[in-house]
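Course assignment 3, question 2. Fill in each field.
Student: A.L.
Task: Predict the tertiary structure for the chain below.
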Amino acid sequence: MATAAKVGTNMTGVQMSPKDTKSLLEAVEQIRPDVPGNEKGAMLERVKRTEEAERIGSVPVPGSAKGMLKTTFDKALGKHPEILIDKLGERLAFERSGVRLYDAMIAKAKALEDANSDLIQVLKHIRDEEFEHMNLVREAIETLGADPTAMTPCADVAGVKSMGVMEVLTDPRTNVAQGMGALLTIELEDNAAWELLIELAEAGGHPNIAKSFHKAKEQEDDHLVKIKTLVRRDLIVQIK
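Answer field:
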């Protein structure tokens, strides 16, 4: 992979200018903020805004008769099917974003690595399995009679979370090692989320859906191992 870090001119550290650092610290004590308030005030304002804000969204009512019957039946049993549907929507959004993230990483790797490198083959393999997982979740949502195209609250949040990683991967200044580090954060969450989703499906009375997710969980375990191994191997080689 491309070198993760290199020595060069860096103007961000204070050690390069002790005199200016001293002046800066003195200014902190002498110059007061021109806006009144403190940390407590900021916290109270956040609390106020949170209390006043509307929620991100809601889980939509099933648009099919099948979905309405399933929801009504689960409600009669004291269950909350909207929880599972919300988390399924989250997983669908996450896996869809995952495909795009790996596409971006593959493009970066092709630009900075050998086009036939083992890394690119691994990335393509994981990308293809993420696409399979996306369709698997879509089928599960349809099995429940829900609409896989609906944006649930957790799906909305998942999309926002992935934006930061996408910015890292599509920034032309980042190298392969930095991109792989960003993918590692995604795989760590993805792995834990599939484990939780299986538990939710079982607790919600949908053992067949839970069973259908076991292969995806095993593949996600493999993704995490592969990405961690690639990141670790590259950094160890560089530091020696």
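Instructor remarks: The radius of gyration is 23 Å. Residues 165 and 182 are 6 Å apart (CA to CA).
Grade: pending
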